[in-house]
Amino acid sequence: MCGPIAFVLPVNKKNKVQTLLGTSLYHLGRILSYALIGFLFGLLGKGLYLAGFQQRLSILIGFIMILIVLIPANVLNKYHFTRPLYKAVGLVKSKLGLYLNKTSLKALFSIGFFNGFLPCGLVYMALLGAISSGNEMDGSLYMVAFGIGTIPLMTGAVYLGNFLKVSVRNRIQKAIPIFVIIIGVLFIIRGMGLGIPYISPSDTQLLISSDPNSCVTIQ
After folding, report:
1. Buried/exposed 140-159: b ≥16 CB within 10 Å, e otherwise
2. Can you give the pLDDT at residue 219?
3. Which of 3, 119, 133, 196 has the most crowded Cβ, counting Cβ within 10 A?
4. Are 158 and 6 in contact (CB under 8 A)?
5. What burial letters (b/e) apply to 79-118, b meaning 16+ CB within 10 Å?
6. Is 162 exposed, middle or buried (0-12, 13-18, 19+ CB in 10 A)?
7. Are 151 and 35 in contact (CB under 8 A)?
């Protein structure tokens, strides 16, 4: 969801200083929204004994990500449980639409802020780490670090937006669901506890207690 917005970000590309300032405010808005989301998800994970549960949660998130991509939107809209999500996303998109027509610095910051609340597979992956961080502050800092890590690629998208043909942009948009499915599959593999280091750790390799200052490793 972030790439297409970065391509059409209304920065003044005729002025290098304005371009840099506008792009920086866009990133600041994104990182602020990530920090807020990370705070909430860190709060959700606080005090929970996440060993085992964290991996089952990973499987659930992976299946949901894949289903959202594979099932047509008109089918999902028939069920009431999806309506609040689509309604919330619709509100965010409407706000973005208003600000994308403006070139003020406030608009660029607002675009970044609302952009951070749009559905994104990579953000989902980062949020799982925020949940397992142990507390709300660590969850927020985790998402800030994630946002900072996306700055180089997203800045490239802003500067290259005018040079990429519409057909290339469309191909990138079509590739996004594929990457979401890949991430969903990785989530499922991670939750299966196959004993693969860093990819699918076993249930008994790591226990995360409710005390963020303690960590028990089982040999």
Report:
1. bbbbeebbeebeeebbebbe
2. 41
3. 133
4. yes
5. eeeeeeeeeeeeebeebbeebbeeeeeebbbbbbbbbbbe
6. exposed
7. no
What does the pLDDT average to over 188-208?
A: 69
In this model, does residue 49 exceed pLDDT 60?
Answer: no
Measured distance CA(77)–CA(132) in Å, rounded:
31
Distance CA(188)–CA(8), nearest Å, equals 34
Query: Residue 39 — φ and ψ, nearest 5°?
Result: -60, -45
- Lowest pLDDT segment from 9-18, 91-100, 191-200: 191-200
| Residue labelled with tokens 């670090």 | 145
H/E segment holding residue 106: helix 105-115
Lowest mean pLDDT among 68-72, 77-81, 119-123: 77-81
Tokens linked to 3: 């790439």
Task: Check residue 39 and give its pLDDT.
Answer: 93
- 27-38 pLDDT, tens digit per residue, is 999 999 999 999
- What does the angle CA 83 – CA 84 – CA 88 come to, to the nearest 5 degrees? 115
Determine contact, residues 200/126, Cβ cutoff 8 Å.
no
User: What average pLDDT does the segment 123-147 reach?
Assistant: 83
Mean pLDDT for the stretch of residues 44-50: 61
Angle between helices 166-191 and 121-131 (to 10 degrees): 30
Which runs of E-coded beta strand occur in 134-193? Answer: none
